[in-house]
Automatic annotation (TrEMBL):
Chief location category: membrane
Family: Belongs to the MipA/OmpV family.
Superkingdom, taxonomy of origin: Bacteria
Organism: Candidatus Thiodiazotropha endoloripes
Native organism taxonomy: Bacteria, Pseudomonadati, Pseudomonadota, Gammaproteobacteria, Chromatiales
PANTHER family recorded: MLTA-INTERACTING PROTEIN-RELATED (PTHR38776:SF1)
Protein name in the entry: Structural protein MipA
Amino acid sequence: MLQNPKKHLALMGLFSLSMSVSLAAEQRVEFGVVASANSSFYEDVGQDYYLLPLLLVDYDRFYLQGIDAGYRFFEGETQSLALEVRRTFDGYESDDSDALKGMRDRDQAWEAGLVYEVSLLGGQTKAKLMHDISDTHNGFTGRLEYERSLLTSSTYMVNWFGGAEYWSRKKTDYYFGVTADEATSVRPVYTADESYNLFAGVNAVKRFNDRYSLIASAEYQWMTDEINDSPLTTRQDQWTLYAGIFYEF
């Protein structure tokens, strides 16, 4: 089954929430298990379900958020700038679905870049600019996200979030394009251009005590026509649901 793109989306939402929770200490180590369910853009790939172990570390200027690791070389009262490296989960194998048979596998990538965070309008804004450093898709990603509290107390928090993500032409074409030697009578050649997606959702955290917390989230995203027009896809929207239990050391 096609797992990677959807797993990546679930983890992105989880890290955004877990590392912004004001109930946590500045220096911490958390281990958790997350269950998630996701739909897919790709043809003949239905819903998938996962059970994922995750490690979250925030120590002084260094952080590890499962698939993301970084160093904040500037950190003020309301803003920070970090250098980050991450392992993406975008990609697929040709046997993930019948519609992908005959396609060459699309590999995961290592990306690196800058992350800027700032407190703005009562919430938190995060901007990322990441580039492939593994010679996989040789493109880059830009992401802008805003998160703000809906409900909060000493033991729980509910936030809403929304934003947009940009994929360069090289990255979009690598994961959604079809080359001449991959084309068939029902899968024509397709060269994708740059693409965008819009996303929105709700995050929630419930602390049971000083050690244990529950995290849950629902997210919906919509992609531009560059993804919808690909012969590999049947839809341009996607949903993600997840919940996890974390223990803080």
